[in-house]
Amino acid sequence: MEPLIRHNGLVAVLDRVNVDTDQIIPKQFLKRIERSGFGQFLFYDWRYLPDGSLNPDFELNQPRFQGATILLTRDNFGCGSSREHAAWALLDYGFRVILAPSFADIFHNNCYKNGILPIVLPAADIDTLFERARQEGYRLTVDLEQQVITDDAGLTIPFQIDPYRRQLLMEGLDDIGVTLKHEAAIAAYEERRKSFPHAAEFAG
Amino acid sequence: MACRGTCRFGADMERTYGADILSQKDEVRTVTQQSPKTLFDKIWESHVVVAEEGKPSLLYIDLHLIHEVTSPQAFEGLRLAGRRVRRPDLTFATMDHNVPTDNPFDVRDPIAKKQIETLIQNCREFGIPLADLESPDQGIVHVIGPELGLTLPGKTIVCGDSHTSTHGAFGALAFGIGTSEVEHVLATQCLWQARPKTMKVEIYGERHPGITAKDIILGVIAKYGVGFGTGYVIEFAGPVVRDMSMEERMTVCNMTIEAGARAGLVQPDEKTFAYLRGRRFAPKGEAFDRAVEAWKQLATDEGAVYDKVLTFDVSSLVPQVTWGTNPGMCVGIHDVVPDPDSFPTEVERKAARQALAYMGLTPGMKITDIKIQHVFIGSCTNARIEDLRAAARVAKGRKVAPGVRAIVVPGSKHVKAQAEKEGLDKVFIEAGFEWRDPGCSMCLAMNPDFVPPGERCASTSNRNFEGRQGRGARTHLVSPAMAAAAAIAGRFVDVRELLDGKVALPEGGDSLGAAHSA
């Protein structure tokens, strides 16, 4: 996983609520057995017309958003299916940071597992960013170390993040490797459970 | 004991699944004075392996269910890192998402075929029991878990599938995970989890005949929105939940994720124990009785505090039909399609306008004037035997309306066999429904079952998202009885009125005549 410490990038806006993972990556693209190559299918049904040509009305197809690495969107982004393919597709397309007032839980986890930083901001901050992102070529710098978002015009928005997840992202750490260091604790737990009478287990 | 054709590979399937975590000694720990706990607190706290200040907790997982779509990359990750599956004995696999339901053995899509074959290879390589297409146990993963007795109260259960919330109906903490987490559980049998907040949804009031669990959960989501559960585990409680059957509770917990909550919970009770007694992997004999005594402790203590409490009165609830592109966009059968301008915020107005454009509906249109071309009775939400009985009761002696294609896809081979034993297959076939083999089917249309662009489907599944049942497909979520009624009438009707003979049906739609139909 590629570490993420400080990221400067072009902002693309997707002004929709409740964007579900079926939209982010439609099911016909879930049949691959690899983790890579999903970016071409990102938002497929919105991005392409039925004849396969680009849908000029879809936000991300606007020329000014080409090359964007920061996605600005609305509430409950990533709801629905647990498919991690949604995170793989966003990453493969180029997004490293997603800004929204709220995220669906499973998607939120999936982002971290793949080196994408999902930042929850108050609705008022999101509105401010939507306003500023009207300007063509709008860029943001996301500093994970300082936990602050800035633009070139002096905007500064601090953000909160779970410190453990922050550390994993900054170091690009593999979760499993960290967990396996707790092997003794896991084995001890399994031993302990063997002798737990089930009744006592939940009695208090 | 040998595997009796229920699995392909080595594992001894006759033992109790995960028996080592169940009671083995009759020793009762002294209960010390502690603050009252919720059902969630009790399950959570008994599964914490590592807890460090300021970090998520490392939680032990008792049952890991896997299927063909979200597991291949996880196994590949294990292989690349040279890791093993820590507890294949706590892992169980089946194939459901890609399986064709007209002939499960004829997988024509080469990529789907590859995914199914990959699961077989992975299970063989890592020693994981698999209910494959030849197994009598195969079916939708969230249907077979409970029916095989893999799902038990107090367990932590995960699966690379958001509808894992279904298993919460048994008082198990069950939630969906992504593929990286699937790999993590395979390698460690644990997961790092931040402790979610707790919510109680108290469901009360007089539940009128014909109001199903599906109507109730759709009503709850319509009232509180598709995001109200985000960050919470929801415990469903109250007299209406207590009176529900196990299968109805599964329907409610299944759709918890549509409210944003990863897990739903119902306190286990006598119904739960009766359902589980004799199931293949449930404890047997005395061990079962001991387990029941343990499971009885899985109740929220008097005075326990939830982070949030919501209530829902079912007294005035009528059969529900979704009109939009998320499950919260839902109204009663006698309502009209809402006007986007009636919503309080611009964001909601915009979402409603987009939904109506996609759905091809206009504000003010009566729900009962919406014609449908497809009916899907199936999915992990509503493909259990009680669901099929409810739909068959409506279909019996009636005919699917001209121009409507209706399919019934049982949730598992066991459900299918039971339905055939009761003659439900004949009822459906005589009425003009297609009777299929088990799988996820048209719920997400990964297999060959889909709704063509612009056409409309009455569906007992859980998601009416854009494109969910096929590109451009228009999905309306309803209960099994309402879906069957829509098949007969060719449009949405109040199933209670249809059963009372009060609905005008298309020519030849009612071979019994209205007088006999109730």
TrEMBL record, chain A:
A Pfam family per the record: Aconitase_C
Keyword Coiled coil: no
Pathway stated in the Swiss-Prot or TrEMBL entry: Amino-acid biosynthesis; L-leucine biosynthesis; L-leucine from 3-methyl-2-oxobutanoate: step 2/4
Domain Aconitase A/isopropylmalate dehydratase small subunit swivel intervals: 1-123
EC number(s) on file: 4.2.1.33
Catalysed transformations (reactions): (2R,3S)-3-isopropylmalate = (2S)-2-isopropylmalate
GO cellular component: 3-isopropylmalate dehydratase complex
SUPFAM superfamilies, A to Z: LeuD/IlvD-like (SSF52016)
Gene Ontology BP term (one): L-leucine biosynthetic process
Keywords, sorted A to Z: Amino-acid biosynthesis, Branched-chain amino acid biosynthesis, Leucine biosynthesis, Lyase
GO molecular function: 3-isopropylmalate dehydratase activity
Alphabetized InterPro entries for the sequence: 3-IsopropMal_deHydase_ssu, Aconitase/3IPM_dehydase_swvl, AconitaseA/IPMdHydase_ssu_swvl, IPMI_Swivel, LeuD
Catalytic class of the enzyme: lyase
Transmembrane region(s): none
Family: Belongs to the LeuD family. LeuD type 1 subfamily.
Function: Catalyzes the isomerization between 2-isopropylmalate and 3-isopropylmalate, via the formation of 2-isopropylmaleate.
Quaternary structure and partners: Heterodimer of LeuC and LeuD.
Protein name (Swiss-Prot/TrEMBL): 3-isopropylmalate dehydratase small subunit
Species of origin: Alicyclobacillus cellulosilyticus
Gene: leuD
